Amino acid sequence: MQLDNVFGIAGTALNAQSIRMNTTASNLANANSVAGSEEEAYRGRRPLFKALMDQEMTHAGAQFVGGVKVDRIVNDPAPIRKTWEPGNPLADKEGYVFHSNVNEMSEMVDMMAASRSYQNNVEVVNTARQLMMRTLEITKS
User: Fold this and answer.
1) Alpha-helix residue ranges (DSSP H) falling in 1-103
2) Per-residue pLDDT tens over the stretch 71-112
3) Fewer CB within 10 A of the end CB, N or C, for the chain?
4) Nearest-5° angle of CA 49, CA 50, CA 53?
């Protein structure tokens, strides 16, 4: 594996983890939202990653075999919570409002995991850069 591939692979991981953190931020922002029907209630989003295992799977945005990409973002299948709040202006004709299916605790865990993965890949880039600089220093001598 060439050293420049390391930068590309780590770059795909940085991009994927950035998307993961953005979806987590969106989920947390909408965690306490309510709606008048189950269809209108906010559903948490989850990015699905896909490993780039061979050349046919790569594209211009993620051109390095061994990298990762976000294949798609799907809705969380967890059920929507329904509570009886007849005084809420968003309540349906039976007095129910529908809360998002976002679990704030699991979102915080996911955010910390995404942040840690992002930091690890930044460290990979920094280490590869240091190795390249040391190699250049050796060739000067």
Assistant:
1) 3-29
2) 999 999 999 999 999 999 999 999 999 999 999 999 999 999
3) C
4) 150
CA distances, 78 to each of 45, 74, 75, 95, 108 (Å): 11, 12, 9, 22, 17
pTM of the model: 0.84
Q: ∠ at Cα 125 (131, 135), nearest 5°?
A: 15
Domain borders along the chain are 3-140
Cβ-contact 23, 47 below 8 angstroms: yes
Integer Rg of the chain from CA: 22
Closest to 38 (Cα-Cα) out of 87, 107, 94: 94
Nearest to 12 by CA among 67, 74, 63, 94: 67
pLDDT digit string, tens, across residues 29-82: 999 999 999 999 999 999 999 988 776 565 655 556 678 889 999 999 999 999
